[in-house]
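Q: Could you predict the 3D structure of NAD(P)-binding protein?
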Amino acid sequence: MSGLAVESLFRVDGIVALVTGGGTGIGLMIAKALALNGAKKVYITGRRAEVLENAAKQSPHGNIVPLQGDVTSKESLVALAEHVRKEDGYLNLLVANAGSSGPGSGSLPHGLKEEKKKTVKEFQEEAMKTPMEDWDNCLRINVTSVFYNVMAFLDLLDEGNKRALYYGGDVKSQVIVTSSVAAYMKARGSGFAYRASKAGVTHMVQTLVTVFGEYGLNIRLNTIAPGLFPSGMAAAFMNYVEEAKKTGRADSSFIPEGRFGREEDMAGTILYLASRAGSYANGAASLIDGGRLSQTSASW
Ligand SMILES: NC(=O)c1ccc[n+]([C@@H]2O[C@H](COP(=O)([O-])OP(=O)(O)OC[C@H]3O[C@@H](n4cnc5c(N)ncnc54)[C@H](OP(=O)(O)O)[C@@H]3O)[C@@H](O)[C@H]2O)c1
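A: Sure. Here are the predicted structure tokens for NAD(P)-binding protein:
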């Protein structure tokens, strides 16, 4: 088969992957894409066992495996890694996807044109209502847990390199972190803690790429920066946008593609990164937003 044929470039035959937050939303889109395109096993993790069990049924091959765990607990991450160590002994792909939207900006408006500007006092009062713990929780799941998640699975990813089954073992083990367009946005929209967390985790990934290179660890790291995809987390914002469309406050100038992301968009992105096709990507950020960032004040 030609090395340039789609089967050779984009399949993920034989890999063992683990997707945190894989029971719902973007994580489930990712897990399904891997499971339906050759993965030997795709562990999906989250705190709710029933959600995971139902999600696992979505692969006809029985290769999505639910694994309950809380990524904000170091003990839980170590237990997840221990389970994979006993069952498989290696991991080819870790998708650190679990996340939280964190505290909103209170009634500070979303990124669409709003009627009334706030006074300094109103702005200040609104911002100060948010408990600091809400910021801490957001950073804990979106940044801190990603660091410990990577470290808990590091030896298994190393083993993944030694036992890579596909394409002569030349697709190196990888961590993919679900970041967000929020990492780059400056205009009003998602909360400040969420923005800071996604920018922070994006930079942390860049730092890990550099340090892993210096240490010769041979484990790649990349980020995905999705725009708006249907999920429990995104529902409120998507409803808001739908409403704004009706009143003419959002149109295709909001998302040039004129639609939210679909599971096929996420599947294409993850299959590119996880397969031979994306095996030269290391430290890359895959923006998948239908053009949303081009329509707003952003640092991309
Ligand atoms: N949807 C979008 O438009 C969008 C855009 C950009 C980025 N993202 C990012 O995409 C990722 C997935 O979000 P989503 O939109 O798909 O929302 P979602 O469906 O609400 O997914 C969040 C997942 O994370 C899991 N999770 C949350 N806290 C956890 C914890 N402490 N331990 C383990 N798992 C935990 C949840 O499962 P349990 O509650 O069962 O634990 C859930 O499966 C997030 O990092 C988010 O920031 C989403």
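Q: Anything worth pointing out?
A: The two ends are 38 Å apart (CA to CA).
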